[in-house]
Amino acid sequence: MLERRRFLPLLALAPAALFGRRAAAADPAGFVREVGDQLVAVINSSDSMASKRGQLQKIIDRNVDVDGIARFCLGRFWRTATPQQQQDYLALFHQVMVNSIAGHLGEYKGVRYTLGRVAPHDDTVWVDTTIKRPNNPDADVQWVIANANGGQKIEDLVVEGTSLRLTQRSDYASYLQHNGENVQSLIGAMQRMLARQSQG
Questions:
Q1: Could you tell me the CATH number of the domain that includes residue 45?
Q2: Number of independent structural domains in the chain
Q3: Phi first, then psi: what are they for 39, rounded to 5°?
Q4: pTM value?
Q5: Quick one: which of 104, 111, 93 has its CA closest to 52?
Q6: 125 domain-assigned
Q7: CA–CA distance, 46 with 27 (Å, rounded to integer)
Q8: What sign does the CA torsion over 166, 168, 172, 177 have?
Q9: N or C of the chain: less Cβ packing under 10 Å?
Q10: Residue 157: in which H helix or E strand, if any?
């Protein structure tokens, strides 16, 4: 179940609405263009996979509200987790996000994108893009941008009408409901998944 979803398809970066925030006001289209250009440069470069993974990590850390997304995806179980479990889960979630992107880099070689409409949406701003890959149909992606930690951050992506963080939250909730609502069990599953990925 945990491996079924690609949490953040490439260029659909991915990542909990923090209520009361004002919508991002400082040129969200420019922000998306900057992040998109950085991603395209990494994807289409001839660098080694290890180098690309390191570059992706930096892009994600700078531009994605990873901790906010992680808390949102755990839902009500965040409140029942111990402080140690919360810390362990957040650390693992960061690794899962990077691996989810890095594991599919080859599928996006030659990727391009175009920017579309920018529109306020509740306390966020949505930036429409069209993702273009060789030999694949175009994909419509909305980047959900919000103010977090003093700057603009990617909070979610809506790919062909499907919210990636809502999908991940549903997967985690389903796993927990089938495993005694035990957060430690989820943490163990994430650790095993990452271990398998590192071996193969």
A1: 3.10.450.710
A2: 1
A3: -65, -45
A4: 0.83
A5: 104
A6: yes
A7: 31
A8: positive
A9: C
A10: strand 151-159
In a domain, 106, yes or no: yes
Residue 164's nearest CA partner among 57, 113, 172 is 172
Encode the chain (200 residues) as per-residue pLDDT tens digits. Answer: 554 444 444 444 333 332 233 333 468 999 999 999 999 999 899 899 889 889 999 999 999 999 999 999 999 999 999 999 999 999 999 999 888 888 777 788 888 999 999 999 888 999 999 999 998 999 999 999 988 666 899 999 999 999 999 999 999 999 999 999 999 999 999 999 999 887 76
- 44-to-40, 83, 107, 129 alpha-carbon distances in Å: 6, 40, 11, 19
Task: Identify whether 13 is part of a domain.
Answer: no
Do the Cβ atoms of 69 and 161 come closer than 8 Å? no
Q: How far apart (Å, rounded) are the C-alpha atoms in residues 200 and 186?
A: 21
Query: By residue range, what is the domain housing residue 104?
Result: 28-187
- Token pair, residue 159, equals 């790919």
User: Is residue 105 in a domain?
Assistant: yes
